[in-house]
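User: Quick sanity check before I run a bigger batch. Here is a single chain. Can you write out its predicted 3D structure?
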Amino acid sequence: MVFTLMIFLLFPIYDAYSESQYDINIPSGSSDKNAPFHWSSEKDGDATGFIEIIVGDTIFWKNADSVSHTITSGNPQTGPDGIFDSTIEPGKFFQRTFSEIGEFEYYCTIHPWRTGMVSVVSGYRTLSNVGMDAGDGTTFFDVEYKFNRLINNVSVVEESKSIVFELKGNTFSDDNSLMLLLPSGLINGINSVTIDGVSSETFSQEFENDMIILEINDIPPNSKIIVVDGTTIVPEFGEIVLVILTISVFSLVVLSRKQNIGSMLRYN
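Assistant: Done. Predicted structure follows.
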């Protein structure tokens, strides 16, 4: 009983019902106004104190500095707004689960130059213009995703009929599943997924309204690259270019025939 109690005291208990959990560290020396950075987000490496999360996610602010800091909602200009406020002693942390959509400014009342913001959004994030780097660049799509990390870059590899997703930052969330909503016009016939060059067997896909719902589970928290392979990829030529190409080919055929007829008439 005593041993169990000691474990609860020594190790913080995380909320098992939150969707994802993210750490924002307060680095050593951040009480100095001229410090190179005052925050360090383990989600994406951001050092400005800004983080984007989804409704139901939890933030842990952890004080690795040698002095106390506060995490106070509001800003230095207008002061605290009363939404949340906590003093964090060295080696301690403050956690908050965000259940509403919105932008929540915060700062340290002891060191007011230390400011940040939590942006809370609902549902999936959007990757725009995926496929623009393929073919003539006129055929592209939006890809929505839900993940406890950010996708920093997306590229299409026509030769291998693949989409490459570059991940940013690390996370210590318990949920390491990536959900992708992929238009069938972008990729189809998904047959393999690799994570940092290692083939994954923990993915599944469903089809709904010309959309592929791809779920990839058990993604290592420090992964960098996810590659999704299909049997078809975004068209090499866009519709406009196909029309122009068709007209050009037709014109060449007509011109060639005219030249042949002209040559025959001259010789005759």
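The domain at 15-121 is CATH 2.60.40.420 (Immunoglobulin-like).

User: Great, the batch can go ahead then.
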